[in-house]
TrEMBL record:
Top-rank taxon, per record: Bacteria
Keyword Cell inner membrane: no
Originating species: Methylopila capsulata
Name the UniProt record assigns to this protein: 4-aminobutyrate aminotransferase-like enzyme
Pfam families per UniProt: Aminotran_3
Family, per entry: Belongs to the class-III pyridoxal-phosphate-dependent aminotransferase family.
Keywords carried by this UniProt record: Aminotransferase, Pyridoxal phosphate, Transferase
InterPro entries: Aminotrans_3 (IPR005814), Aminotrans_3_PPA_site (IPR049704), PyrdxlP-dep_Trfase (IPR015424), PyrdxlP-dep_Trfase_major (IPR015421), PyrdxlP-dep_Trfase_small (IPR015422)
Cofactors that this protein relies on: pyridoxal 5'-phosphate
GO molecular function ontology, one term from the record: transaminase activity
Lineage: Bacteria, Pseudomonadati, Pseudomonadota, Alphaproteobacteria, Hyphomicrobiales
Amino acid sequence: SDLPPETAALVARRQRSFGPTSVLFYDRPLHVVSADGVWLQEADGKRYLDVYNNVPSVGHCNPRVAAAVAKQVATLNIHTRYLYDVVHTYAERLLATFPEGLDKVAFTCTGSESNDLALRIATAATGKRGFVVTEMAYHGNTTAVTDVSPSSRPGQPLAPHVRAIPAPFGPGDVAGRFAADLEAAIADLEASGHGFAGLLVDTIFSSDGVAADPAGFLAPAVEATRRAGGLFIADEVQPGFGRTGAAMWGFQRHSVTPDVVTMGKPMGNGIPIGGVVARLDLMQRFAASVGYFNTFGGNPVASAAALAVLQEIEERGLVANAADVGGYMLARLKALGQRHGEIGEARGAGLYLGVEFVADGAPAPEIASYVINALRGRRILIGAAGRYGNVLKIRPPLIFERAHADMLVEALDDALASR
Ligand code: PMP
């Protein structure tokens, strides 16, 4: 191949050690050596604008997070069965961002563990095992969570206790259609004998291809969930921590209050930490049957990182920045859609945007993959999502600026013009 020798050697070593579980981006994988803010640096010195990674939400190698981690790791890092201060300061600061009632937290290490725990909480609370999710949902990698992640099981039948409904895309009565589909799925679960434990959705529907509008469309589905005795579990792994620009949590855009909220990814800016927030009565029902212990969940170093992330979001006004830069970028992308017929729609909220590509009125994943590679050639990293893989997924670090948005829009314009 024409890979640089160092990169080719790493690919070979990776294949020898990892075998088939190795998953890399691009035919010519990126060999990264350092990062800073919104930039990733390759071994050969090339610098890439990062429009893909929502984990380093307060910026790659954020100095405040790095300092907090360095100090804590040199002071105390231990499993989570002793008392230490930082996890409590963090828990209080985190819970203060939630609506009243959502006032108990359990820490984990990943979004998958958080969703796994949420499923167990819902089953303990309702005595039922059935869940409703969206058709292309991804909620994580444990056995139980893979069952509620249809995107991880392409072409396979759903698990018997799971029903998948179409994600809430327009046009028309998005809210009404979504609630009606949910009610039919609940009826089916009840008829099957599994019963209904809850609705689990990512409130920005990222793997379904980004569904954001109209804000509020979740409310009738949440009401239907409660009427049927189920819990509403908001997976905030993607939209949480300010990304949608409207508020700290994606569900707040829809003016609904979940029973259980799960989080991960950006929570520690790359240091593994996740969490589940729920009402006391739900935590009690779960804990009455089994306890929950997570060796590393919220350990001192993870807590110190997460606390620094929250301070950065709050003190640097990053929720407002997501609204400002995201709104600006969305307007520019919509304008681009006027000039490039391949753009079917530009949509999203804050710094979570999707650009849908179509050809002759049909989804065009080949244009999305062309664009992903063309942008990589223009030193921009980006990915795609959705049932057909035709939706460009824009979710850069929250410190993204208008000038960065300009770089992306202009490179996209150029890439589409030279296709
Ligand atoms: N939920 C959603 C919506 C996700 O996007 C992901 C990860 N892509 C997860 C859960 C799982 O998180 P993790 O990979 O940290 O286990």
